[in-house]
Write a structure and sequence with these properties.
Layout lengths: L1 H20 L1
């Protein structure tokens, strides 16, 4: 469960960085 949450968090961060760098 912790691993899944971490993966989701990483995806959220990736989206945020992608939007900021766009």
């Amino acid at each position: 469960m912790d691993q899944q949450v971490r993966k989701t968090a990483m995806r959220m961060i990736s989206y945020g960085v992608y939007i900021l760098t766009s």
